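haha ok so turns out i had the wrong file open the whole time. this is the CORRECT one, sorry everyone. sequence first:
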Amino acid sequence: MDIHQLRIFASVYKNRSFSKASSELHLTQPTISDHIKSLEEELTSRLFDRIGRTIIPTPQAEILYNYAVEIIEKAEEAKNAINEIKAQPCGELIIGASTIPGTYLLPTVIRDFKYKFPHVEFKLEISDSKGIFEKVLNHELLLGIIGAKLTNSNIIYTPLTEDTLIIVASPKLIRKSTITLENLKTIPFVLREEGSGTRKEMEKLLEQKGLSMEDLKISCVFGSTEAVKEAVKAGLGVAVLSKISVKEELRTGTLKEIKIPGLELKRKFYAIVHKKRTLPFQYRLFLEALTTAFKTDFRSQGLELGGR
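then structure:
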């Protein structure tokens, strides 16, 4: 077996699909099938059970996958070690990010990094914090940026910066700029989905003030920040959102900030990696760039961010 076959096998195993592996690797399905068949013949073991369009890894595949991941990583390490000597990092850099950092913060860092290291190719996957966390935990991503700290001893967290969460509403729905905690219980709420870091941190911070989700009048739940913003603009209720995500709406007056005396909503953004994974050279360089950029560039842009 060779490294090319192992990459194909690992993609099929990870995606549980020949077609998805074909799309990911830009190879035809017959080519994917031929390589898997060749591996099975070489190992004299069936690697996948085909049930209709579903494929299920066999126990032999489970064993091979662990070795395949290690071999692929070692090959990448060797390649990157040579690139380090050349002082010109290259290769693919796949990052997972939750909505706020992925949409509003990372593009600037990626731009500056690409200017310095033009041979590095980026792929940015945006999901909720829970989804990115699980992909790093399950070895589907090497590096993630999320807005909530989820408990697992296999994940290493690097604090990047602090984010301010604010309560926003349509000026047509609420005229006051300040309300009480008791008032909050009477106002319809628009929420992000349960996997969202913004929602998780909102729940945690409100609980510190003696409020649970059961105390709120939930109007509707949406799967993206943009959808929540549009719902709030339409008057469906108030929402807790990252201040950076509504900067333009606050400036134009389509949304307004509602303050509650004594309630400060803040959360941190973290870079996460699996403690058992070794970051390739370009990933280490980018993580260094992240820690620098989040502590300086965004603060100087007046976005009210800045790690402590």
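Confidence is low (pLDDT under 50) at residues 296-308.
again sry for the mixup
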